[in-house]
Write a structure and sequence with these properties.
single chain; mainly alpha
């Protein structure tokens, strides 16, 4: 970690343009990983049935599950729901 900090101070931190480009590169990489992982991880899991044992917060979480490349309303993608 210290080596990375010294490298960044020497090569990136002295220029506003380079700092901006570093932020843009990191943002692009994080966005691509966030999109490509669920695209590659096509594991569709059935949505649990509400049998009355769920609390309100658990029911709210069930509403937030993402059906990326799965059957809408019946399955959800675990990686896309993170």
């Amino acid at each position: 970690n210290e080596m990375i900090t010294h490298w960044r101070m020497k090569h990136i931190n002295y220029s506003k343009t380079r700092r901006f480009l570093e932020v843009m590169c990191i943002s692009t990489i994080v966005s691509l990983v966030s999109f490509l992982l669920p695209l590659a991880w096509v594991k569709c899991t059935p949505i649990p049935e509400d049998d009355g044992s769920f609390s309100e917060s658990q029911l709210e979480l069930l509403d937030d599950l993402v059906a990326f490349r799965c059957v809408e309303g019946k399955e959800y993608n675990e990686m896309a729901s993170l």
